[in-house]
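pls design
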């Protein structure tokens, strides 16, 4: 029944604040995440907060977008609070890393999902040191070019800042 979801409704409204009232259809979607995917109430609130933080504002976000993220997380079996908390912590580290690269290039915008995923690939999959990425970013201004430079370093077995610095000083 709707009554059992009263605290979820209140929690969602708290997250969105007075700038946006939650519509019935949006609330029904949130209930659906619980019933279909097995998200707990607090997991739903974490999901919604994550999506709003990413968008920068509750006014600017669509429930269809949050629904896509919920589906994606459910497919990855990321429906309980611990898994979600772990993911958000990893994501925020990679988001901050990608943002720091943009800042070095005097680009004042949040990183895109693709840019965050590239940063994750470099640091988590290829174990590239953060400062090695910074060395590679010195003479380029796009993530595409930076990715090519990092692929080159990786193929040469270079993952440390010292080795990257030495590689670029030989140019």
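designed seq:
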């Amino acid at each position: 029944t709707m009554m059992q979801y009263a605290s979820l409704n209140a929690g969602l409204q708290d997250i969105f604040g007075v700038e946006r009232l939650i519509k019935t259809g949006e609330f029904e979607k949130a209930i659906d995440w619980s019933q279909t995917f097995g998200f707990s109430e607090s997991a739903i609130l974490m999901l919604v907060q994550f999506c709003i933080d990413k968008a920068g504002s509750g006014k600017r976000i669509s429930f269809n977008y949050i629904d896509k993220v919920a589906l994606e997380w459910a497919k990855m079996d990321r429906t309980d609070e611990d898994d979600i908390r772990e993911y958000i912590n990893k994501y925020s580290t990679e988001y901050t890393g990608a943002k720091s690269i943009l800042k070095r290039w005097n680009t004042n915008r949040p990183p895109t999902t693709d840019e965050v995923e590239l940063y994750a690939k470099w640091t988590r999959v290829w174990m590239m040191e953060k400062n090695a990425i910074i060395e590679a970013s010195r003479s380029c201004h796009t993530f595409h070019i930076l990715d090519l430079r990092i692929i080159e370093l990786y193929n040469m077995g270079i993952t440390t800042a010292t080795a990257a610095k030495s590689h670029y000083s030989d140019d």
